[in-house]
Design a protein that fits this description.
The protein is 69% helix and 0% strand. The protein is an all-alpha fold and 274 residues long. Helix 3 packs across helix 4 and helix 6 packs antiparallel against helix 7.
Length: 274
């Protein structure tokens, strides 16, 4: 087999190509198991975001009559839709990362096999979360059409933020999946960190209202930029900041390479621990 450096981008691509059929098969199983035994099945993947959108619309739009900051150009988007867009992005990340903390420990039979591409296991969780995340964005699309009365052409630029989100999520998921084998408390730690990240990401508020002294903390959070640029594309009807998107892509790709390399390096000891 051809040798690759762990940080060589070709290594991850090679693993993905060689095991594509296995990734598809395990992802389908992951999706099927999520609602196994449920009367409504996959309907819940659409029902949950629909109910959340309805609750946010009632609480923030009708009860509190909330507005998205003064003097901020939102392209006519309503507060509930703006907030829901941020939650759709964050939900994909948090669900993937939290579920990956136990993906290796929860599949000991795969770990003990002599030949099995363990790198595929975290990707199956991430892929399934992104597929379910599409249901959130479908509900968001309906919300945009309902509240704004039109859909902007800039939505076709959605992959510009979707791909970096995928890379960032996969990279972090590889890291926590590996740590979950050696540190069993990592599941609780990651749950707390993602909860903190939830409030440190401009989901319920625009980043512009944060005091400048501490705004840099949010600006260094990659999810903040992903949320902001997704809103610009999906809701505000404007083209994204191409420089920021380029930086986000490069940073997310670097996180993915580091996470993949870390997982590939540490997987050798999985069988000894599990």
């Amino acid at each position: 087999m051809k040798k690759y450096s762990l940080f060589n981008p070709l290594l991850s691509i090679n693993v993905l190509i060689q095991n594509w059929d296995l990734l598809v098969q395990l992802t389908k199983r992951n999706i099927a198991m999520r609602y196994r035994g449920s009367a409504l099945g996959l309907f819940w993947s659409f029902a949950q975001p629909l109910m959340m959108l309805g609750v946010y619309s009632f609480v923030f739009g009708i009860v509190f009559k909330a507005r998205w900051g003064e003097g901020i150009e939102t392209g006519g988007a309503a507060f509930p839709v703006i907030m829901f867009c941020g939650m759709a992005v964050f939900n994909i990340f948090s669900e993937s990362v939290n579920n990956c903390t136990s993906v290796i420990v929860g599949n000991p039979s795969y770990v003990k096999k002599v030949i099995f591409p363990l790198e595929i296991l975290p990707l199956t969780v991430v892929t399934a979360s992104f597929i379910f995340g599409l249901a959130w964005f479908f509900m968001l699309l309906l919300g945009v059409a309902f509240f704004m009365g039109h859909i902007s052409w800039t939505m076709i630029l959605f992959p510009i933020t979707f791909i970096p989100l995928l890379l960032l999520t996969a990279g972090v998921s590889y890291f926590v999946a590996s740590l979950g084998v050696y540190l069993r408390d990592i599941q609780q730690v990651v749950a707390i960190i993602t909860q903190i990240l939830f409030f440190m990401t401009p989901i319920f508020y625009p980043i512009s209202i944060v005091p400048e002294k501490i705004r840099w903390v949010l600006e260094y959070n990659p999810l903040s930029s992903l949320v902001e640029q997704t809103r610009i594309i999906f809701l505000y009807g404007r083209q994204p900041d191409w420089l920021i998107c380029s930086i986000i892509f490069l940073a997310s790709y670097l996180v993915f390479l580091i996470g993949f390399a870390w997982f590939s390096k540490t997987k050798k000891g999985f069988a000894d621990v599990i």
